[in-house]
Design brief:
Layout: E1 4-9, H1 14-19, E2 30-33, E3 50-55, H2 56-62, H3 66-84, H4 89-105
Parallel strand pairs: 1-3
Antiparallel strand pairs: 2-3
């Protein structure tokens, strides 16, 4: 991964939630902002770094304890990295579902 910033913010803004069509009680845990690898030109043009935003408040409110918080942040980060690599929401959800199904079988 190159030219990507991982940023922690307190909360998603009301404007961002509105823009994404997310209404309470739902919220946003993370967001990838940039051009996925699958959509990039390989001519080497200069551009600003892609960004992954992780929202601290929603993670802390949704976690039972510190261990749960670490897992939730890792899951969000992995999810957003999937978008960096050009995966759709549906493709990422399918991978997550397969992972949790395998975990449950162990």
């Amino acid at each position: 991964m190159r030219n990507i910033a991982i940023i922690v913010e307190d909360e998603p803004s009301k404007e961002l939630l509105h823009e994404m069509g997310i209404a309470p009680p739902d919220t946003l845990l993370g967001l990838y902002s940039g051009v996925p690898l699958t959509e990039r030109s390989w001519r080497g043009e200069q551009r600003m770094p892609d960004r992954i935003l992780i929202f601290q408040g929603p993670h802390e409110r949704d976690s039972r304890d510190d261990d749960d918080l670490v897992i939730a942040i890792a899951e969000t980060l992995i999810h957003e990295v999937g978008h960096y690599f050009g995966m759709s929401e549906e493709e990422i959800e399918e991978i997550e579902e397969q992972y949790w199904r395998a975990e449950a079988e162990e």
